[in-house]
Write a structure and sequence with these properties.
alpha+beta; 14 helices; about 500 residues
């Protein structure tokens, strides 16, 4: 009997040990997905904040650290009642978040990266951990928190109401409005001067891509997702960016009128390499009369807007122009726009396929500026931007059929490369956590602060361009063009 009892105990002990080996309760040996990933995002946010490498191009949702939004994604707020649409929207928001967090991680020092403690998956690259947590938290949310997420969809505008109150905006804006109207009148006069009579104080220099001709095109039958957004792959975007890249015809007085590639110098400061002229490109979308249209954005950087007098309030380090082409479903331009990288001097160049809503624009305190009306040629063409010296104002947009062989050849780089520039053993974001390029402040900010625009005149990042001093208007507003133009 005693032997049988001992044998029974041994058998029981064997099965207990066997069970202990094969059973691995998650609750005791590793945290749940929510706990682990919540801790992962918390640690990451603290490291990024302490290192001052936050990126301002998109906005993270506070209660949902795996989601980020821009004005385009927020524009779907009232259209996500359908579960399939909400699921697609979640995926796009999570993708935007991963891009931002990957850039921030890349910009952390090696020492900072080593401070983060991962409870598991510690042997995997950062991208694997980020993808894991993004996927798991998205799965856990699913449709359960749909209404809460939709309610959280908002982006603050790039205006300070407090500054407007302190600066007696109701009064000071009247003076600013008068100056803007005066500037627009002078610009109108300039655009009425025949092209051949425009003043050339230096030497006209051209920059551009070799023309690829109309034979290289993208199918008009672009697939759309459930949000009705056309989905382009990288190859298709590359073709379109090359096809519609403008030629810059610049009145060059000195090196400040050359464009270049943004690099980081030995003092860890950004500067331009003028031996490598570069267009930085970025796709965006416009919402226009129920359709979602692709927009091609090109950004060109100059070393500076040079000082021309002791009272020059507009001079400073770096100057940039953003050129945008809005395409219809057949990939034909319907509207062109330009704005400087400070958000200043927004101009529109409309084709004859759209009509300007002058009755709406004229009622605004700072009307949108329609610089030119254009007719698109039927045959192969290149869009040419005549750019003045010093101020780098666009003075004319015109089309030409022939390839100008004397143009300096430019390279194309994605705009995101500016968010993580290589510098020795680390990477640096051109833009500060507030979205402004450091050391590009202008003296005009002391006069224009009552308009509520932070550091008016300073260069800033995509998603942070307030383009009106009187009123409120943003360059990345997907409804911007629909407000002022109608389309048959």
């Amino acid at each position: 009997m005693k032997k049988a009892a001992i044998k029974l105990c041994l058998i029981a002990a064997f099965f207990y040990l066997l069970t202990a080996c094969v059973s691995f309760p998650i609750s005791h040996t590793q945290p749940s997905d929510d706990d682990y990933c919540g801790n992962f995002y918390s640690q990451l946010d603290k490291l990024v904040y302490d290192a001052k490498v936050q990126d301002a191009q998109a906005v993270k949702l506070k209660e949902y650290p795996f989601l980020s939004v821009n004005r385009f994604l927020v524009s779907f707020k009232n259209e996500l009642d359908n579960n399939d649409k909400f699921t697609e929207w979640l995926e796009q928001s999570a993708s935007l978040n991963k891009i931002t967090r990957s850039i921030e991680w890349n910009n952390l020092s090696l020492n900072a990266k080593q401070q983060i403690k991962f409870e598991y998956l510690q042997h995997y690259p950062f991208s694997n951990r980020l993808n894991y947590c993004s996927s798991k938290m998205r799965e856990n949310v699913k449709l359960k928190q749909k209404s809460q997420i939709i309610a959280a969809l908002q982006i603050e505008d790039n205006y300070s109401t407090a500054s407007r109150i302190l600066g007696a905006y109701a009064i000071t804006s009247m003076y600013v409005t008068a100056q803007i109207n005066k500037h627009h009148a002078l610009e109108k006069e300039s655009f009425n001067i025949p092209l051949e009579d425009l003043s050339v104080s230096g030497k006209l220099q051209s920059y551009g891509l070799p023309p690829i001709g109309m034979n290289k095109s993208v199918s008009k039958n672009i697939q759309k997702n459930v949000l009705n957004t056309p989905v382009y792959n990288k190859q298709q975007l590359d073709v379109l960016f090359a096809k519609f890249a403008p030629v810059l015809e610049i009145n060059e007085e000195d090196f400040n009128d050359k464009i270049g590639k943004m690099i980081v110098n030995n003092d860890s400061k950004p500067e331009l390499n003028l031996d490598q002229p570069t267009y930085y490109v970025l796709p965006s979308y416009a919402r226009f009369q129920g359709k979602i249209l692709l927009q091609l954005n090109y950004v060109f950087w100059f070393p500076a807007r040079p000082v021309k007098s002791i009272l020059d309030i507009y001079a400073g380090k770096f100057d940039g122009i953003m050129w945008r082409v809005t395409l219809d479903k057949n990939h034909e331009p319907i509207i062109f726009e330009s704005v400087h990288a400070c958000g200043c001097y927004h101009k529109v160049y409309a084709t004859d396929s759209v009509s300007f809503k002058d009755d709406i624009a004229s009622k605004e305190p700072e009307p949108i500026f329609l610089a030119q009306k254009l007719k698109i040629p039927k045959n192969d063409y290149q869009t040419v931007l005549r750019i003045g010296s010093v101020s780098h104002f666009i003075q004319r947009v015109y089309f030409e059929m022939a390839d100008r062989g004397e143009a300096h050849t430019v390279g194309l780089l994605h705009y995101d490369s500016l968010r993580s520039l290589p510098n020795k053993n680390k990477f640096i974001n051109l833009f500060s956590p507030s979205g402004i390029v450091n050391d590009t402040e202008r003296a005009e900010r002391w006069l224009l602060w009552p308009m509520g625009v932070e550091s008016a005149g300073a260069m800033r990042q995509w998603g942070n361009h307030a383009i009106a001093f009187v009123g409120r208007r943003h360059y990345d507003d997907p409804y911007l063009l629909e407000k002022y133009f109608s389309w048959p």
